[in-house]
Specification:
With 127 residues, the chain is mainly β. Helices cover 0% and strands 47% of the residues. It contains no helices and 11 strands. The strands form 2 sheets. Strands 2, 4, 5, 6, 9, 10 and 11 form a 7-stranded mixed β-sheet that branches. A 4-stranded antiparallel β-sheet has the order 1-3-8-7, with no helix packed on it.
Length: 127
């Protein structure tokens, strides 16, 4: 079982990136996935979450209106489209699989309710 996050990079303020979270060893169809980020010297925070059953999407207030989470079950991948990026979005971004039984339990942010984590991809927003 593996989750691989990729798509990070260096982007100017106001720019866009699309992160991908590719799963192997299991199918994403019935899994809830969260995106988290951790900036240097800061605690990890939840960024976005997509539920398993009805694909409901949730966002941290800091990214609402700028980020969009989606899934492509045919590609076994969850995406995080990030627009209007700000320097404060700079962080390593991780995707994680919500543990079985927790998928529809909110809040979705506690890290200990996730059982598999990707290795992270670095996003740097700077001019």
């Amino acid at each position: 079982v593996q989750l691989q996050a990729f798509g990070g990079g260096l982007v100017q303020p106001g720019g866009s990136l699309r992160l991908s979270c590719a799963a192997s060893g299991f199918t994403l169809d019935y899994k809830a996935i969260g995106w988290f980020r951790q900036a240097p010297g800061k605690t990890r925070e939840g960024v976005s979450y997509i539920a398993n059953s009805d694909t409901s999407a949730y966002y941290a207030d800091s990214v609402k209106g700028r980020f969009t989470i989606s899934r492509d079950n045919a590609r076994n991948t969850v995406y995080l489209q990030m627009n209007s990026l700000k320097p404060e979005d700079t962080a390593r971004y991780y995707c994680a699989r919500r543990s079985k039984g927790w998928e529809m339990i909110y809040p979705w942010t506690p890290s200990n309710t996730y059982d598999f984590w990707g290795q992270g991809t670095l996003v740097t927003v700077s001019s």
